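During the reporting period the student researcher (J.K.) took over the structure-prediction task from the postdoctoral fellow and processed the backlog of single-chain submissions. One of the processed entries is reproduced below for the supervisory committee.
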Amino acid sequence: MDVQAHGYSITVPDGWDARIQQGSAKDAITVQAATRALLPGDAGGWHTMQSMKPGDTFLQLDDLGPHPPDLPDIDSDWSYGALPLTIARKDLSDLYVNYLPSFLIRFYVIDKRALSLRGGFGSNPGDDQLSIANQVLSSLRITD
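J.K. obtained the following structure tokens:
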């Protein structure tokens, strides 16, 4: 399935769900993809992640808009990046969300935009699950 909106596009495999949304012009543009149905009205993805089962994957990219000058230079949580984004096993933690065994959050500046990437896994992901998540991330495009 291919989804395009708000200057982004993403392709997900059969059996996945995806959407690109923006509540208002002041809200972040949100790109979500998951191995299960995305719950209506769940812009933050938290309800979808709470309903995940072992083997499920959830990905969310938030475009927070133009970044402050030199953001990665003054805040070590941020780094300059480029597409495609990838998830490595070292990016995963069990400390962020108590109902998920594996979660990640990363912050990037790409094309002068401040972006946050979150991912949740319903179980500790195997290499195949990480590979498919990275395949989905590799399809992400900024189209404007």
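The committee noted the following: The helical segments are 46-50, 71-74, 127-138.
J.K. will present the remaining backlog at the next meeting.
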